[in-house]
Structure formats: structure tokens, C-alpha cells
């Protein structure tokens, strides 16, 4: 389905995003004060309930249908020796997702979430961004549209992750384009590359930034030139979620970098998204800070696959359970403070 036929149409949608329901958020804040607990005592669970209500447009937030989307893509920049693993692993892991053997399969089950994997032209890697733009405009828009179309009706919460060997290089290059800095600043070890590989990774990022310097100020052209199909899919899904009233849980460095152009295209562009887990991938905490976001948990994970979003789902379920299920002081006959 072609939702956006041109970059300009996409740009226009990103500049005109719905604001969320301030009334629903205010109703939650008001009810929180009536629940049988000292004000503020549930800490961030209270603001999470209000955040869900705002972006769902519902006074009582719901998490009946939690959806995890994992987008997969292959990257030409792997020719530069930037990953510890070969590109063949991307398609092999997609097969592993399909047969239920990956970490995200277990985390999705544990969090009672539906998992869908969206492979994007795995047999057609993007171009090496040190040599040319990673994608044509048509390829980029096709991936954005695929992401946009992948968000099911009736989703109450959307978790966004990825699989794509080489994509921590891609994500670092895109992040540098959006927020400044270079390969040294943003590159981490991804799947565990050694020192020589990390050097090659930094050099590839710097070469990409140099080659595409004329377009780096344009977030969509930066995503097209330095990004990847799975990152574009995440971007499209995050946009669809915003337009359809679905809050988003982002995963680690790659997932956050993929969605970040939305924050550059509109000052409130990622207000409907939070980061589930602070990845151990160097650069994620910096990117979170640049976006003004505090990840929900830090378990030292650095996997991708939406794993860091999935581990945070129970926290949101806890916020909703307390908010919707607790008695008020009046209902329970508990004396409130004077
Ligand atoms: C077996 C395996 C499973 C994975 N699941 C996620 N990733 C993660 O590692 C990749 C990014 O790291 P780099 O940029 O160093 O290639 C992505 O595919 C990401 O999802 C995996 C990587 C491997 C090897
Ligand atoms: O934080 C991430 O997104 C990440 C880290 C390592 C490997 N793949 C993804």
C-alpha cells in the first residue's frame, strides 16, 4: 500500500502530527490523586499511565493488544568489515524468529505480546553508503510505507525493533547526521567487533558523512542516504502509530536512531514514544539524552530485535493495573490527608 508517494508528502505528514489528548492525561492525573496511596508514591508508574492515556486518547488506558514489530534489512556497508557476523545471519535469524527460537520470541511470550517480523528485500541489500546513497527515493518510500502499513488496527501499544547485520553502523551514521558528531562519537561494538573492526566502522561512518554532507541537514534525505530499509520501516511504523493514537515503546540504539528523524521533523514528533531499555551499545544513552528521554530500565542488554522494548512491557502493564484497578479513598473508606 502506498501511503506516501513522495518525500514531500511524507514530510508534510510529519509536520502535522496529532497532539494527543490533554483531557485524557489530565483525567488520569486527577484520578491518581484519589487512589489509595500517598500522592506521587507510584513514581514513574503514574506518569506512564497518563502518557498512555494521552496517546491512546482514553481516560482509562488499556493494554489488551500489545504488538511487537521487528523489521529486517540488509546493508551494503557490511562490505567494509563493520560487523563481527556475516550478512547471511539476517535472513537466518528471520527464519529463527519464524520458528520461535530467538530471544524476542521468548520475551514476546513472557510479556503477552503479538510478534510480527517484516523482512524488507533481504536479497537486495542497500548500497554501501560510503559510495552512494543507501537507497533510492522509491526504495526508501517503499520501506516507510511497508512500516506504516504493518501497524495492525486495534493496537494498544507498539514495540519497534530490528534485525540487520551491519545496522549499528547505519544507525550511528544516521545519528551523527541528525545530532552532529562523528564515527568516534557514535560507533559502538554492535555484535562485538574487535578493535580493528571498530576502527573500520568509525572510518566508514566518517566517509559516509563526508560523502553525503550536502544533504545531512535534511532528516529524510539523511535516512535515505545513510539508513536502511528496516530503519525506514521503523520510522514509518512510528509515524503510523502517532497518526492512529498508538503509544510506542522503542528498543535500543538502532530502533531509537530509526525513529529519531521524526523528532527532527517536528519538535513533538517522538512525544508518543518512550525508550524501553538503555542499550549497552555505546551511543544509546547519548542519543536518549539528545531526545530528552530516560529509558525505563537498564539490564545491560545489547541485542536489538525489540528485546529492550519487550522487557519494559510489564512495567506499562503494572502502571495500567494500578491506575485502573486501585480503589479510591472514598470507595475503600480510607481517610485521605487533610
Ligand atoms: C545471532 C544474532 C542475533 C541478533 N539479533 C539481533 N542482532 C543485532 O545485531 C545486529 C547489529 O549489530 P552489527 O552492527 O554489529 O552487525 C543487528 O542485526 C541487531 O538486530 C543480532 C546479531 C546476531 C549475530
Ligand atoms: O542497541 C541496539 O539496538 C543494538 C545493539 C547491538 C546490536 N544490535 C542492536
UniProtKB/TrEMBL annotation:
Keyword annotations: Cobalamin biosynthesis, Glycosyltransferase, Transferase
Enzyme Commission numbers on file: 2.4.2.21
Domain of life per record: Bacteria
Enzyme class of the recorded protein, top EC level: transferase
Pathways involved: Nucleoside biosynthesis; alpha-ribazole biosynthesis; alpha-ribazole from 5,6-dimethylbenzimidazole: step 1/2
Stored Gene3D superfamilies: 1.10.1610.10, 3.40.50.10210
Keyword Transferase among record annotations: yes
Catalytic activity, as annotated: 5,6-dimethylbenzimidazole + nicotinate beta-D-ribonucleotide = alpha-ribazole 5'-phosphate + nicotinate + H(+)
SUPFAM superfamilies linked: Nicotinate mononucleotide:5,6-dimethylbenzimidazole phosphoribosyltransferase (CobT)
The keyword Transmembrane is assigned to this record: no
Alphabetical list of InterPro entries matching this protein: Nict_dMeBzImd_PRibTrfase, Nict_dMeBzImd_PRibTrfase_bact, Nict_dMeBzImd_PRibTrfase_N, Nict_dMeBzImd_PRibTrfase_sf
Entry annotation: catalytic residues: 305
BP-aspect Gene Ontology terms: cobalamin biosynthetic process
A single GO molecular function term of this UniProt record: nicotinate-nucleotide-dimethylbenzimidazole phosphoribosyltransferase activity
Pfam entry (one): DBI_PRT
PANTHER family (UniProt xref): NICOTINATE-NUCLEOTIDE--DIMETHYLBENZIMIDAZOLE PHOSPHORIBOSYLTRANSFERASE
NCBIfam families listed in its UniProt record: cobT_DBIPRT, PRK00105.1
Physiological role: Catalyzes the synthesis of alpha-ribazole-5'-phosphate from nicotinate mononucleotide (NAMN) and 5,6-dimethylbenzimidazole (DMB).
HAMAP family membership: CobT
Family membership: Belongs to the CobT family.
Stated name of the protein: Nicotinate-nucleotide--dimethylbenzimidazole phosphoribosyltransferase
Gene name of the record: cobT
